Amino acid sequence: MAFITAPQAQSRLEGDTTTPNILRLWPTFIVALLAAAVISAPNLLDPMMRYDDFPALLVEPSGFWAKTLHEGRWVNYLWHLRGVVTPSWLNFAAYQMLWALFAASIAVAALGRHGSPWFCGVMAMAILVAPPATLISLWFNTLIPGLALVASYAALGCRLAPQTHRALLPIFVILSFMAYTTYPLLLLAVCLVRSQDRSLRDLLGLLALFTISFAAAVLVVYTLNLQVHGVFGVPLADWRDASPAQDIDGMLANLPLVWTSFSDLMVRSSFGFAPAIVFHLGFLVVATFVVLRRAPLEALYLHAGLWVGMGLAVVQILKMGAIVPPRGFIFAWVFYAIVISRAAQILSQNVGMSGRMARNGVLLIVGSYLLQTFQQYSTYRAWQSDSRAIAQVASTIEGAVFVLGDPLKMVSAKGAFVQDARALSYRIQQISGKDAIMCGDDPSTCQARTDANTIMLQTR
Questions:
Q1: pLDDT at 3
Q2: Partners of 401 in the beta sheet?
């Protein structure tokens, strides 16, 4: 890493102030795309997906219809109507490409014309390895249209004038909200870093625009549900075991869920390594102090976006009475990565120990999380291999296929955190084209089965 500290290379960290952002985007995107390909390698050829992501792969709208009511995912439902089945590896590659495009675009937008290619690449990779992004990527078939909206808006931030770009925010917020609830916060992050003439008035105006746009998105979803389902709102599905608050006492009763949501986020974002939680929190505090001293308005913009997002999450938890899973906090890691990368860039403007420590701190996160993400995707390979072998056996059976045993008790299923037995039946359908009947542990539940058309699962 000699190039990081060598005085003759330090000038390159300051960047070329004449290159337009759109030209900076492509080399940064290539770096992010290559990094995405490397960390995704174990999952590229036969990608892992959660059981409720299969309807999007197999183009089965009926399997997703309930989510329009219970989650307001109307854009995703339209995606299910496309009528064209594409292979899972192609869908996953497209999804990762879109995530790399978002990471590169927001990095270039954040650093602007004063950002060196080196720092743009580092910030993009710091965003790319977000643990919440890795977790949510297992629903890649469903989320392609939503991420395409987010990535497109971020890329436009490198091409359009700030005011033109900001004028498009309401449209993108409404559409992206109907793909995933917290996607609009990624759009807000793009607008915040893209702002050039920063002031308190401008910040309040942007937050007001976002608030109105978000409220409009909620109203659109509620209205669609009223027209189609006869329900004005988004009632949570029974499996979420929610306890919606009707008054202040109900919201106070849901307070423990706030702690559960945030503690889960910290644990999953540190891959279960407790010292890493302290490191990240400490790094955020120190980096915030650095940015606050040298670019106070920028620090205000970034933290305004971060805490608006956290506030919306808290309100949702208290009102709906259900946790927000770690994958829903993808926006929080994006803001974190931007803050620490900007602090490192600021400290690197002068040769010294602080700049080296900051750069190496960011590189430590990037390097270790590239490796952790690679390992995370590797944990699914055993389940993919086992389920593929079972599906291949199913393809040789004439007529109905019965599966005896609980898939969730398989060792590989536990390692991959398989959530539902339907994951195996969908997997069999994906590979063999056959519908499999799951008998569970009780053979009497499938009386029409015979030894010839039954697959016995090995569990221990």
A1: 36
A2: 436
